[in-house]
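tool_call: predict_structure(chain=1)
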Amino acid sequence: MASPIQQNLEKKNAEYSADFSKGDLPLPPGKHYLVVTCMDARIDPCAAFGIDLGDAHVIRNAGGCVRDALRSVVISQQLLGTREILVVKHTDCGMLTFTNDDIRAKVKENLGAAAAVELATLDYLPFPDVEQAVRDDLSFLKEHTAATRGDTVVSGWVYDVKTGKVKSVA
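tool_result:
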């Protein structure tokens, strides 16, 4: 039996696909850029950043971390021709609320010692300051020449979850 979430997916997908007409879009993103942003459910990157289907790659993970997205960034840049990267973190991010030790203790408490040992060396990449985390990601991209093409434009942003506005971070 399908869960309510699975049932919703099937229902909404049936509605979406009933008049779907964009099946012929090319594989590379049409506007040749990618966005790395957080998985936070309060962010709708397509609506907030004006991304239409086929325009851009949107890579989401906890904290919008470039290091965590590196594999996808390299593929997007080197195989699919993107030439610009937007790094977008946000206010009130969950990554501001814990340390690696905190999450390791939670894993041990919830899943036991074996899981804690298995994940003991995983860096969850929390950060104490969102703007500095953007700057750190921009520096990371500049240091990793395999992640970008020679002509890649890179910029950093903070999205405010209360207002929906973005602010450039240099």
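agent: The domain at 29-97+126-169 is CATH 3.40.1050.10 (Beta-carbonic Anhydrase; Chain A). Proceeding to next step.
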